[in-house]
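User: Here's a structure from my thesis project, written as structure tokens. My advisor, Dr. K., wants to see whether a designed sequence matches the one we expressed. Can you design one independently, without my sequence as a hint?
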């Protein structure tokens, strides 16, 4: 049975490593293995002496204990360590869903969160973000109307990729309470948790408020270590966790020994890594404001509340055509069409040190081709 093409990853496969100026990365600034070991105060000898044998399918017990310590009322037994966050989406959807189940998915959304659920169930409803007074928001009443007696799963992602939206705690609690009362499981992608900006506070993990929630997290975004491919699921229901682990046997079986060792190092210095990236994102956003003011005839700046990305409006252009044209000039932005959204917005990513330098390249391109639109 064929699944839809993974359009966003095909787009990045085509352009990400060929474009000089990357402006839409969702991850944060990465570091070398040597720097990670120094931050974690881990001798290189410890890594070099790591044996390359199989690991436990659920993950190294010490590593799972460290992950569990990050969340209240979670034990190491609740944690399933992954070979990649993407694996977590794949195995959770297969463990949770059957054909005909109804699934509600927040939109726009990272493509696999939608496509895998749709592939399995053929029964999807989108809960769309709306714009009001230049701010992204979600209509709770619209969600309640979308639910049916067959609704099995609600897929959410907070902080949200790509809008940068973060609900307030009261709204978040209402959402989790509603799902619990309806018997609807929530899959909550928390890959950007810990990247709250300004005065925004980190929400409790969804599983702290509703033990039936399945949480996805990892080291790629907040901690800037996508090359490790480390992620984890928190699944407190033992029956469902066994189903998830069974599916894991059909994918990676287990994570890598070096990956687990480096993940332990990352968790030892995670607050340092997260703070570095929060500071960098805020610096890049501040540095980008003059650009968006100068090019307000092309872009509609929509502030981000949390995370490393923002979804910016584009005026008078097709977002997809605009981005494809830029890619030919070596400047990479992501059109919203690759996140199952209208052809009206573009994702910018603020988590890289090269962002402002790359923004200069975009500024020069616009000055050359659209000087009349500069204010």
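Assistant: Designed independently from the structure alone:
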């Amino acid at each position: 049975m064929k699944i839809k093409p993974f359009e966003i990853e095909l787009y990045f496969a085509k352009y990400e490593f060929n474009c000089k100026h990357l402006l839409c990365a969702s991850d944060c600034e990465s570091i070398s293995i040597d720097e990670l070991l120094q931050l974690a105060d881990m001798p290189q000898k410890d890594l070099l002496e790591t044996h390359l044998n199989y690991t436990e399918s659920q993950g190294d017990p010490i590593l799972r204990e460290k992950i569990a310590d990050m969340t209240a009322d979670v034990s190491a037994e609740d944690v399933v360590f992954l070979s990649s966050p993407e694996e977590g989406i794949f195995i959770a959807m297969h463990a949770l869903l059957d054909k005909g189940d109804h699934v509600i998915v927040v939109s726009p959304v990272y493509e696999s969160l939608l496509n895998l659920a749709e592939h399995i169930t053929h029964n999807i409803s989108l809960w769309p973000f709306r714009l009001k007074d230049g701010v992204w928001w979600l209509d709770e009443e619209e969600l309640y109307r979308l639910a049916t007696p067959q609704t099995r799963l609600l897929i959410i992602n907070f902080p949200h990729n790509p809008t940068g939206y973060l609900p307030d705690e009261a709204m978040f609690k209402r959402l989790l309470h509603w799902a619990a009362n309806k018997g609807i499981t929530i899959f909550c992608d928390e890959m950007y948790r810990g990247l709250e900006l300004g005065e925004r506070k980190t929400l409790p993990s969804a599983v702290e408020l509703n033990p039936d929630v399945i949480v996805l997290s990892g080291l790629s975004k907040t901690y800037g270590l996508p090359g490790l491919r480390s992620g984890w699921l928190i699944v407190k229901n033992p029956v469902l966790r066994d189903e998830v682990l069974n599916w894991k046997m059909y994918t990676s079986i287990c994570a890598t020994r070096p990956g687990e060792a480096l993940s332990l190092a990352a968790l030892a210095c995670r607050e340092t890594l997260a703070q570095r990236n929060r500071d960098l994102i805020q610096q890049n956003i501040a540095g980008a404001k003059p650009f968006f003011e100068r090019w307000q005839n092309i872009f509609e700046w929509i502030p981000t509340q949390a995370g490393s990305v923002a979804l910016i409006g584009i005026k008078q252009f097709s977002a997809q055509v605009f981005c494809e044209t830029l890619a030919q000039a070596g400047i990479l932005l992501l059109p919203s069409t690759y996140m199952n959204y209208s052809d009206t917005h573009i994702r910018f990513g603020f988590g890289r040190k090269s962002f402002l330098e790359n923004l200069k390249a975009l500024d020069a391109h616009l000055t050359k081709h659209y000087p009349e639109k500069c204010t």
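When you compare it with your expressed construct, this may help: Residues 34 and 44 are 8 Å apart (CA to CA).
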